[in-house]
Amino acid sequence: MRDEAIIRVLEAALLCAEQPVSVVTLSGLFQTQPVTPDDVRRCLGLLQQDWESRGLELVQVSSGWRFQSRPDMQVYLEHLNPQRAPRYSRAVLETLAIIAWHQPVTRGDIEDIRGVSVSTPIVRTLQDRGWIEVLGHRDAPGRPALLGTTRQFLDDLGLKALDELPALTDVSANEILAGLPAGTPNDGGAPAAQNMTGHKSEKDTRAQQDNQEEFL
Question: 59-83 in b/e burial notation, b at 16+ Cβ within 10 A?
């Protein structure tokens, strides 16, 4: 099968797909004329080049390939939906940042870093978004669950692997997590934190805000 024909099929499939598509799935689209995963990878590279000057880009994330808008298009695309969903609360983003950069961690670990208790609604919010999951259990009294991030978390940040997360010495977690899809009104109301590296300042204020956000 000619590369042009393969690229045409790949382009149509990826533009219509709602989620990233793996190379294996893409190669399975060609039933009558078998196309190998290597053929698909080569054609994906060619397709990527074809879209270099357009508003969309073809990227590889953790669970596969997808088309997405380029960062410089965001300022224009925001006008398509002027009633943007509110940002996640500071407590939610801080908890997610600790899990992402220190995983695997238990709720106790998160509480030690933040200096306040981690409420169940915060953990449930992150699980409902598909950003965290239970990776196992620590060999300790009570066998607490070890939390880590998911492929969906990487996909939503446009990353292929955890080692692509930048060091927090170079950029704040808040800047990085700003790339995640916005939340719903039930996801909290306090402004996102400026620093989520694990400092325990303003402990009493945080505890009060967390308790309020549980009911928002």
Answer: bbbbbbbbbeeeeeeeeeeeeeeee
Nearest to 89 by CA among 14, 190, 199, 180: 190
Cβ distance 192 to 174 under 8 Å? yes
Omega before 104 within 30 of 0, i.e. cis: yes
Is 94 in the same domain as 42? Answer: no
Contact 114, 195 (CB under 8 A): no
Q: What's the pTM? A: 0.68
**Is 179 domain-assigned?**
yes
DSSP state of 139: S
pLDDT of residue 168: 74
CB–CB of 66/152 below 8 Å? no
Are residues 110 and 44 located together in one domain of the fold?
Answer: no
* DSSP calls for 49-67: HHTTTSSEEEEEETTEEEE
Q: How much is the average pLDDT of 60-81?
A: 90
